[in-house]
Amino acid sequence: MIPVSIILAVLIGKLRGGSLARLQNLDIKALPLILTALLLRVAVGKLADYGLLLPWLQVLAYLIFFYALVLNYKIPGLKMFACGCFLNFLAIIANGGTMPVSAAAIAYSGVNYGDPTGGMHSLLTDETRLSFLADIIPLRPPYFPLAQVVSVGDILIIVGIFYFIQRQMLNKGDLLVLD
Prior knowledge:
By secondary structure, the protein is mostly helical. 51% of the residues lie in helices and 7% in strands. Helix 5 links the parallel strand 1 (99-101) and strand 2 (121-123).
């Protein structure tokens, strides 16, 4: 969902007269920490493919990421992005280090999760805590280009990224201020 949203944000930014060159002038602090957190999240998923389940490594990745977000809280769009990350983090921490995902939403969307009970996801059950923050929103073509199941946190993350890109590409006077 994030790559599609980034592409859409850039295309809309260009259609609105924005400049790609302005995306090069990012003043993001702690970029190595952000990359470390992202690599940890990827590692959790890849290690799960080999049967090594380390869900708490995902929690560590979030904590590193939150620290980097705090250092960058003044950047437009990152507050909403951070809120989305925090909602996902709450669902993950409340459910043993994995993000619950609805089997009904998986079936409806047609997405192939492989084994949703390993790695970064677990199946949503009656015992799931904070189930309203879990991956319960199915997206599928033709409404969204790629079939997937998302959470409320994911939607806030996407809105934050979209706003961040629009804000970077356009002049401040061209935008509705959300921060």
